[in-house]
């Protein structure tokens, strides 16, 4: 599958390249900022992919400082910079997203492989619309959300799911705990619809779902997390809360989550058994 490279991917990739160039010269981000007259945090935030570098002249100055003289190398980085300035399709939802989530959504669209673990609720990419709506409404009063806010959030979640049916979409592998599927969200009718949606998605070529039974004596991660893998860019791991999304890109950090995922995937019943597990749960819980 050819690598997709959306604006967020290009912004993160450009930042990574710029940091590598700076590190090779033994320079600190603060030193470069002071030397070139940037704000103290600008270099660091550009390198982490938090913000774009909108001015072509700023990139040219950075490349000059880092001694990048090769025409082809400069052109490749300049093309990254231009591509990173395009708008993502979810831009209209930015006001309702927690801190860190916009950059995650941009990377999610360009991932070639997505591996997620959820302990408490169904993973967002697997949620049925009725389940997502009931889940959002259950928190509406507590989190002081408007009906419009809830509806937009559900719409965004459904738009994200389109990744699963795109011909160039990522391979998706999700692990759920049985307890997440036993927790009633909305009503038995909603839960039946959610089970049916998981079974429908399991039938897709690039989607695998595993369920860890409650009575299986095995390792379970204490964290909900998602690992995104790419072509031409190192993997990142995301874990979120109501207020913020935390992302890790350091190899040792991502590696820890990858090991957790592999341990659970090896111990849980295989993806082919998921429909039967759901059927058994539905008969016991929601009939």
TrEMBL record:
GO terms for molecular function: DNA binding. Pfam families: DUF5753, HTH_31. It comes from the Bacteria. Transmembrane segments: none annotated. Gene3D superfamilies: lambda repressor-like DNA-binding domains. Residues 18-74 form the HTH cro/C1-type domain. Coiled coil: none annotated. This is Helix-turn-helix domain-containing protein.
